[in-house]
């Protein structure tokens, strides 16, 4: 055995027997050999990617070059899976996650496709990368897994991405099937023309053989399908999801909405279109109603359009007016909703608040949060000119004309109307004069001649109104019943007359009763502060025209029940103070009840 001595050891160590020296030397050699093997295994590198580069086999967080090579190799495999990697192995290499090859290493291993007999999947999830899969990668992973890496029959070029498709799924899309048929027909015609040209031309044998090889390659290669997209709402995420449903109908998108519906319509996928419409109909809310209505009008989906408009009739005032999505409500749709006789609101003032909030958001499009009502009042109060009389506000006149401002009777609400510089002076004078006459003994005909009032109540005349259209001029009051409520009441005051609106469930059944009862101004149900601050009429009889509308959700849609316009004399005695109960069976919560009242001559 050959032993090497350093100068330090030979100088400081005494002479030892040969056997002793041999044991120590053997022990030192074993340690040196172990360290050498460990260092060699640590520095050992494996091939990574298609660039003939190398990386460490162990998991090193500082190996940034190796990490970059892994990502590049994955992207390369997704973009061109059928191309061969220029490496020592001439066959195509794919990334797979092999848990048995190197359990300590989180880095993916390069495995030959022919040796990967067990089920594997394309590896994208590495420990140091939290980057989610792109839409193209999600589609490639799913399609290759379900087709077992079969060669594509067609390549769809859309949105700057090449989507590899197979004939077995093209039949689920009318547009893709049509594109494939047309492309195949054109290629067959071109090959026939090329074959006829080669047959009649004088070429040598080598050129003929090259032509046959070229023809065989074209027949076996995938067809190129080009689909232009002009709709800005269609993106790669929606297109990737739509194409994935061709392979797996159970796929679900991150969000059912305009992008998915537009993509389904573009590809002619009727099953996906119906499924998307069903999901959208079941998910109409304050967050989605505006976008759903816009895409329904664009694609002429009348069922979805009517459902959105029906939702707005019920929840424009009670829900959408408290969300920032109110700014996305278009002018025409808002006007149509305000003019609808089925619009639900607790009172007329709440409708005015919703319109003022919508107008504020239209004038401040950069605002990202819903403003407080005090902010809106301050914004419109600081203006010196009347908004609706300015060129900018002329187009909003129809919106305020659709409001029933004559139904706003609370003093603080009337004071608010005076403070904001929105309504013209003539409108304000007309409204205030009507309320002034409710507490006057006589009527100033000269002053009132300045206006053309739609409604003119008067305490001297018992609060009579000039009605031309009951459905547009009646004053509305609403209440909502949920599952836990058995009875709901509301006390209202109109031109000195007090009424109790009632909605009650009858026993354990699903039958509800709705009625109106006139109250004396000293009745305990009337708040004493209201009696002090509001006028009251001592007239014994009052002719009232009322209409009760009940709307509830049943069998997957909103159903409407109406009592129709009913005229009745309400007296102060108990026998004549209450209306005939309006009873409805089979109602389920939530229940929206609207009482519309007017005082005819």
Question: Can you walk me through this structure?
Answer:
The protein is of the alpha+beta class. Among the domains are: 134-191 and 221-283, Potassium Channel Kv1.1, Chain A (2-Layer Sandwich); 345-439, no CATH class; 470-598, Apoptosis, Tumor Necrosis Factor Receptor Associated Protein 2, Chain A (Sandwich). Helices cover 40% and strands 16% of the residues. The chain contains 21 helices and 16 strands. The protein has helices at 7-12, 18-42, 64-79, 135-147, 167-170, 174-200, 205-220, 236-247, 258-267, 270-282, 289-299, 302-315, 331-339, 348-363, 373-381, 397-401, 411-419, 425-437, 445-448, 470-473, 528-533, and strands spanning 45-48, 53-56, 94-96, 109-111, 154-158, 161-165, 223-226, 475-481, 487-494, 497-505, 512-519, 542-554, 557-562, 566-570, 582-584, 591-598. The strands form five sheets. Strands 8, 12, 13, 14 and 16 form a five-stranded antiparallel β-sheet that branches. A four-stranded antiparallel β-sheet has the order 9-10-11-15, with no helix packed on it. A hairpin with a 4-residue loop joins β1 (45-48) and β2. α4 (135-147) runs parallel beside α8 (236-247). The longest helix has 27 residues, at 174-200. The chain is elongated and about 110 Å long.
